Amino acid sequence: MPEPAPLACPFQKRFPSQLVRDDAFYMSLAYNQAIDAWREDEVPIGAVIVFGGEVIGSAHNRVETSRDPTSHAEMLAITQAASKIGDWRLEGATVYVTKEPCPMCSGAMVMSRVKRVCYSVPDPKMGCLGGAADLNLLERSNHRFEVTRGGVLEDECRELLQAFFRAKRQEPDAS
Ligand SMILES: [Zn+2]
């Protein structure tokens, strides 16, 4: 069965100033990852992990390409980051992700002991850092991280996701 041609992504990557390394800067990098996802016909979600000002993980959703339900942007970025620093403990690291993490990815953030998670678009359906549930509040867990919920490039990241699903619904043959 021939694969349908990927929909062209109508959005451009962002080129933030390198001088100000704030949340918007790193979220822009995650946003650019999300654009890469769309260009591969994947749901446009991107994640970046930062440690000491350095990007140690950077990935986008690849579930369709790898035919692997665990290939979420956050999971791939966490694996990269752990490999880069040679430790499964990502203490001190901040995860930037364009959408609130699902149960699997929120769990991986608890297990890797990240310092902080900054997500862009809240997800009341599947989000597990305050949206549908909050894995950061497990009663007996001895690890908590800071969470920044929405507000950083939120409109841009949401528009990207909504436009992708809109385009998908309009595909002539979505089977
Ligand atoms: Zn996930």
Architecture overview:
By secondary structure, the chain is an alpha/beta fold. Helix content is 34%, strand content 17%. It contains five helices and five strands. The protein has helices spanning 23-39, 63-66, 73-85, 103-111, 154-169, and strands at 46-51, 54-60, 94-99, 116-121, 146-149. The protein has a five-stranded mixed sheet. β3, α4 and β4 (116-121) form a beta-alpha-beta unit. α1 runs parallel beside α5 (154-169). It binds zinc ion (ZN). Zinc ion (ZN) binds next to α4.
How many runs of DSSP E, i.e. beta strands? 5
One letter per element, helices H and strands E, the order comes to HEEHHEHEEH
Strand content: 15-25%
What is the typical, i.e. mean, pLDDT? 94
Coarse shape: globular
Instruction: Give the uncertain stretches in residue-range form.
Output: none
Question: What ligands can be seen in this structure?
Answer: zinc ion
